[in-house]
Amino acid sequence: MGQDGRDGQPGEHREVVVVGAGIGGLSAAYQLQQQGRDVLVLEGSPQVGGVLRRRSVAGVPVDVGAEAMLNRRPEGVDLAAALGLEVCHPTVASSRIWTRDALRPLPRSLMGVPLDLDDLSASGVLTDAELARVREESGHAATPVGDDVTVGDLVDDRLGRAVTDRLVEPLLGGVYAGHARRISARAAVPQLVALAERGSLLDQAPGLTGPSTYSAPVFAGLPGGMGGLPSTLAERLEVRTRATVRRLGRVPVHGGHRFALTVGPTTDERTITADAVVLAVPAAAASRLLAELAPEAGRLVGGIEAASVAVVTLALRVADAGALAETDASGFLVPPVEQRAIKAATFSFAKWGWVREAGAADGLIHLRTSLGRHGEEAALQASDDELVAVSLRDLHDATGLHATPVDTHVQRWGGGLPQYALGHLDRVARVRAALEAVPGLAVCGAAYDGVGIPAVIGSAQRAVADVTA
Q1: In terms of residue numbers, what domain contains 279?
Q2: One MF term from GO for this chain (predicted)?
Q3: Is residue 442 part of a domain?
Q4: What does the alpha-carbon distance between residue 462 and residue 21 come to, in Å, rounded to a whole number?
Q5: Fewer CB in a 10 Å sphere around the end CB: N or C, the chain?
């Protein structure tokens, strides 16, 4: 029931207003609606979904943002089931890592921390000397981590810098578009901290379950793309797009207060009041909206930085793709030490059966590359054509591909991935403590409790509990 924000009337009152129509805001609104609440979603942009988005490339709708969700965490697949959506899993194609001038098997790991030394040795990712350094970790005593430590520093200390540089960095880069030596281990990989505080990482590895990255049932998707999840939610909710919330305050009513949201441009602003508000917007926007009612929370949220990334989607003729069209790989990751333009490539046609089938009718295959890490925004200032060109160059060097795309699409996500710096968990706890002074107001989204789709939905569920307590 999406509608233009100008339809709102002055003096309008709603029980709950959710600001932001990404997957966090939409799932929060859906849960509130299921509880019988009167809920309105306000979205500043022309469309819903946040970083879940589909675009037609050579006539085939494909994801140009997040393309999968963790299957082993229930929130995402449970929401899909509640909406009557079919869930699918990636094919058995395995991922590679492009390092030392070859596409090598990606060793079984916990976010890059090796779980099988034989697997690691056979991959050729590390030299003999680097492997010897890894083996020294066996028998390591339990190590108290303290308040926090970066993922990179912890792995450097235990296994050597090469493991961080060639395994941890590309895997974390795919999730956070950040840098391992700046990302909080307690926030991003808490299981790694727990292992380190119990003893040797290597000695505990055999007891850890977890097949190779990207193999089912670790991940799940939706036939037709993850972009179908927010669009299905929005169809069941009252969502107003192009409805930018510029200010959040309070107005007195009946001896108490209601929240007052100023919506729209200064030339045509409207006020909507609400008993409760959920802010499901990126950290920078949340910080601005919190400034009046919860300035300390706003200051803390404003300190959460974000990385900008770009996703380049390519449609190729099967006849032009050569051996790549028959690959048994789902794609590859690129360590930053390789100094390449792209940080990953996904062979969507090999990873997702529905993508292959969708392109087959016209003899096409679809793949995509991702570019950009935190602090490297200048690299994304290139034109769309330039980003396509460097993607094709790296794909040629990695796979031998030499083809002219039938169609391309470049999706830029400015500030799309929040960075979990040292002390992130403490920062989020302090944000929520500060919000306790403003009953009926809560925050949720990727900036707080995890960047994956299930984690964002879980964050929304917590916000709903906070505003309805």
Answers
A1: 13-46+241-304+421-468
A2: oxygen-dependent protoporphyrinogen oxidase activity
A3: yes
A4: 17
A5: C
